[in-house]
Amino acid sequence: MGVEKLLLAHGGGGEETLSLIKDFILKYFTNPILEPLEDAALLTNQISRLAFTIDGFTVKPIFFKGGNIGKLAVTGTVNDLVVMGAKPLYLTVGFIIEEGFKIKDLEKILQSMQEEAIKNEIYIVAGDTKIVPKSEVDGIFITTSGIGEVIYSGISCKNLKPGDVILVSGPIGDHGACILAEREGIKVDIELESDCETLWPVLKPLFESGIEIHAMRDPTRGGLAANLHEWAYSSQVNLVVEEEKIPVRPQVKAFCEALGFEPYHLACEGRVVIALPEKDAEKALEILRSHPSAAEANIIGQVLDHSSSPQVYLKTLYGTHRVLENTSGELFPRIC
Amino acid sequence: MGVEKLLLAHGGGGEETLSLIKDFILKYFTNPILEPLEDAALLTNQISRLAFTIDGFTVKPIFFKGGNIGKLAVTGTVNDLVVMGAKPLYLTVGFIIEEGFKIKDLEKILQSMQEEAIKNEIYIVAGDTKIVPKSEVDGIFITTSGIGEVIYSGISCKNLKPGDVILVSGPIGDHGACILAEREGIKVDIELESDCETLWPVLKPLFESGIEIHAMRDPTRGGLAANLHEWAYSSQVNLVVEEEKIPVRPQVKAFCEALGFEPYHLACEGRVVIALPEKDAEKALEILRSHPSAAEANIIGQVLDHSSSPQVYLKTLYGTHRVLENTSGELFPRIC
């Protein structure tokens, strides 16, 4: 188009919108379902059990070590499908972008999205782009919605049972620490990097293994603590996790200590927390660890008894038990 | 929650997010699929032909005569499904909201969304809410994604045939004129009102009637002109529409004349443009007009010959033909 920045006209729905779609969007998101550019994508799969989700992404900075808002928008929605036992199939994407946004940056984002789509063997089948005056939006917001086919049924945050074992697939807090450090310009000696990654390759073998899974969640906003509190509340059970067993990278630990908060409240974007019967725990761990992205998977705790005022406990390094507080407050806006 | 305004903490993913969902979102969007609050909604319909779409809404003002951003976000996505021949089934919704947004206003929006959902017999099955600092977003943005079951196949913007007749279901430009007037504070003697409305009740009888439909579109951003240009380009045909036959309300006409532009470029949010074989045109018109929202439906033009440099013509009130320009430029940001 010979322009370097997005104009309000690119969102007008007329000539310029069509060029934006044809010259840039279709250049990256090329697939036979999107290309007809109709008002809705037409799918012909015979799907009997469908999972359907949506997630908005406002992360700032939009480019960060380990990913960018586009990669995050695909992996985030894919992961929400996967942790419900679904094979991701199709995504739709809505962009809200400030006037003057660099087209080169948009292209980097589109390319990342397509790379993730290919990695997950999914198509981005429909989209929408709005351009908003600079004073009314900061950078770019992306909302992705996804559908998938449920291949493993019964996963639910209401499904934790006393005696269940709790696993995590890798070190926690990487994404949250990375974003906070980059946004606030906090200099750390060791580099922090987001764990932003699709969970499909990690979890597919688990779904196919025949082991029993009770609950599964990717601890994004609110981190591990919010994840565990949601489970405790939904299943009306007490939970305990052990500090010593929860994998945290040294640089994340150092970052947290320096800033005076705990990694349990920091977002992950490529980790999964799983609750399953003890009998299947070792096998699950073995399957997880066989994938490079989950090599540090570990059993971190267990489900205690039923309770009408459920609580989450942390067994500290000193062997004492304390309540692990739910994440709260406004420390972490625009983390995802 | 005892608070009147949204806080950054409401988007943090922890305690306050859960209260926002439980105290407000679920109060309006109540249905058995959303209520489990899992990472993705689980659907059990056997759907063989699925339509899937997404749309972002940034309209300003967020409340306007005839609707608000919430009503628009449901009708807009529903209409994108319906014009592809699909019965709408489920919606997901992503909110991006500025810190300090009045909860009373959010409730009005949620209520409108639920009212439209009920009108369309659909469920809002999953959602996401991000709260962003005031300096980084203006008010509220809503992205809705929808799936539907295709009950009439073959509709496509590539499917216009020479000889086809073009119909519109009612007066054009109401939404665009209303939003522009309200936003710019333009005082007009006669009140302008958005046509924001679901097309499902209007079009369902048409799908069931056995008549042949070639193309169908709701002329939102870019208005009738962009709609016709997209069709001409996609089907490689010349089109002609007649000024005298295109319904435009007198107040919209007056508004356009006063501001020096044409109603063909103004968005509609409750109208549909249809191309179908001449043999079915009268029957289609009769079916459309039998619904109160399409009482002013009219045949406005026809498809001429095939062309490799397709054009859209307007037969003026004086009987002359001129080219109807595509919508372009940045006159209309945040119209939807």
What would you say this structure looks like, in words?
The structure is a homodimer of 336-residue chains. The first copy, chain A, is of the alpha+beta class and 336 residues long. Chain A has 2 domains: 8-150, PurM-like, N-terminal domain (60s Ribosomal Protein L30, Chain: A); 165-323, Phosphoribosyl-aminoimidazole Synthetase, Chain A, domain 2 (Alpha-Beta Complex). The first copy, chain A, is 29% helix and 24% strand. Chain A contains 8 helices and 14 strands. In chain A, strands 9-11-8-12-10-13-14 form a 7-stranded mixed sheet. Chain A has a 4-stranded mixed sheet with strand order 2-7-5-6, covered by helices on one side. A two-stranded antiparallel ribbon of chain A has the order 3-4. In chain A, strand 13 and strand 14 form a beta hairpin. The interface between A and B is large, with 96 and 97 residues. Strand 2 (50-57) of chain A pairs antiparallel with strand 1 of chain B, so a sheet runs across the interface. Chains A, B: Belongs to the HypE family. Chains A, B: Residues 38-150 form the PurM-like N-terminal domain. Chains A, B: One of its GO terms (biological process) is protein maturation.
Q: What would you say about this model in short?
A:
With 336 residues, chain A is an alpha+beta fold. Chain A is built from 8 helices and 14 strands.
